[in-house]
Each structure stands twice: as structure tokens, then as C-alpha cells.
């Protein structure tokens, strides 16, 4: 596919991804300053392995930053584009339902602007989220839609348990919109519906607070449980609330064939599944092996659906 160089650099190549060693050697070969060339060769060498890991990988130094730091670099664009990694798509869960409005699509996005884990003196900027933040109303963006695995049970009497801290609330906002439309058309759910939401602080971090309160008041949500991890004397997370509610959760999932949906970070998802297994042991009187098999069976039956990211 032919495209202009500017388009390739903007839409195809990832200029922020940590530079590979072959890219460093390529840049070194096109450095007019001997000191800059030597520096790049060292970083790409076996002797410079530890410095490469700290200065490039951990600190997230990509081609764009290296070109700014070393003004003598003048690589040919063809070779540069061959060595730059492809810009990977960023996936966001849709937070609106076409049942309510087929002409718009909502996203719930955290703008990534935070210290690198292993280089806290440097700031990691989200490639896509910062662009969305800066985009003016009416501006076009490049996007595509993938089919979601999140579907409400066809039987409205089936219990539903949703776990979505932070931006993981997205698909459940869409669920609630779908439920509202169905209820208005006389097709409302009759089964129990529970939502576990979490964030650091109730003030400032509580996404869609008014909408969730309205869902409880309108009886779309039977139970809303919130974990504000930094507002109390001890940190409380959604998995802690699930464990506290073990008897009720087991009744819904273990006895009544309910569905469990989890959306959010990978670590959180892992802890929620462990909490479910512990609930199966404590309240379902299953062995550890039986509890693990129960969770696997839920997944195989489509009753445990996860959408997680690291």
C-alpha cells in the first residue's frame, strides 16, 4: 500500500516504542557526530546491555526522542521505516449501547500520563489517549469496531454480576443503557443484577456516579457495591467486596447459574477469579480442585466473561 512519508510516520510507525538494537546500530551508521555514533553503538552492544535496558527499554526511549537528543543523526527515511515497529491499535471497550442510540458511540478512556514503572523520573504518555484528549470536537479519528464478547444473558431471569473498577465500568454502562431500553419496552430483566465498581477516591474518581445512582433508583441495578481504595483506614478493592459478599455471590453464581463479567486490569481480574474460587470453597463447600474446575466450567459455558488489559 502506497502512502506519503508523513502518513507512514503518523499512522503506521511507532516512534515512541523503545528503540531496538538493530535500530540503534542503524542510527549510529548515520550519525555525523562520532560521540553520538559511539554512544549508540555502545547501547546496542553486549557490553552496553544493562545501560540499554535502563536508558532505552525501562525509560521508553523511542526513535523520535533519540532523533531529538542527537541532532547529528540523519538516517534515510526508507531504512528508518523498515526498522521502526508497527503502531499497534489501542483497544477500548465501548461504553454505550446501540439500543439507546445507534448514531453515537461512547468510550471511557484514561489519559495515560504517568511515570514509567522502572524510570519514575520520566513520564509515559499514551499514544492514543493523549491524541483523543487533544482532539477538537468534530475532528475525525481513525477507528474500527470489533465484535464484543460481552452479552447479557438471553434469559432475563438469569442473575448478573459485573465487576468493573475504573474505566472497566465501560461495558457495564452499556449494559445498563440496554437494560433501560428493554425495561421501557416491557422487556425488563427480572433476575438479580449486581455491580462492583472501584476507584481510589469517591470524590473525583467516581465515574458515572449520577448514572449509577439513577440505575439503582430505577431498579435496573439491585446492588451497587463500591470500593474506594484510598478513602478508608485500609485499602479496599472490588475483590475484597466480592469476598465479603461470598454467600450472596455463591447463591447467584453457584446455585442459580448466574453470569459473571469482569472488565479492567489483568491483576484485578486475576484477584477476582481467585476470590470466586475462594467463595466456591467457603460457601459451596468445594475442594480447591473442584473450585478451580467450577471456574473453568463457567468460562467454557460462557458464564464467566473477561476483558482485561495490562
3D architecture notes:
This protein has helices spanning 5-12, 21-28, 34-43, 49-58, 63-69, 77-83, 127-134, 170-184, 202-205, 209-217, 238-244, 246-255, 266-282, 288-300; strands at 113-116, 119-125, 160-163, 193-199, 223-228, 259-265, 304-309. The protein is of the alpha/beta class and 310 residues long. The strands form 2 sheets. The chain has a 5-stranded parallel β-sheet with strand order 5-4-3-6-7, sandwiched between helices. It has a two-stranded antiparallel ribbon with strand order 1-2. Helix 11 (238-244) packs parallel to helix 13 and helix 12 (246-255) packs across helix 13. It is elongated. It starts with a helix and ends with a strand.
| Major sheet summary line | 5 strands, parallel
- In order across it, which strands form the biggest sheet? 5-4-3-6-7
The poorly predicted ranges are none
Shape: elongated
Task: Kindly state the number of beta strands.
Answer: 7
SSE map:
Blueprint: H1 5-12, H2 21-28, H3 34-43, H4 49-58, H5 63-69, H6 77-83, E1 113-116, E2 119-125, H7 127-134, E3 160-163, H8 170-184, E4 193-199, H9 202-205, H10 209-217, E5 223-228, H11 238-244, H12 246-255, E6 259-265, H13 266-282, H14 288-300, E7 304-309
Parallel strand pairs: 3-4, 3-6, 4-5, 6-7
Antiparallel strand pairs: 1-2
Helix pairs in contact: 2-3, 11-13, 12-13, 13-14
Key descriptive features of the protein:
single chain; 310 residues; alpha/beta; 5-stranded parallel β-sheet; two-stranded antiparallel sheet; 43% helix; elongated
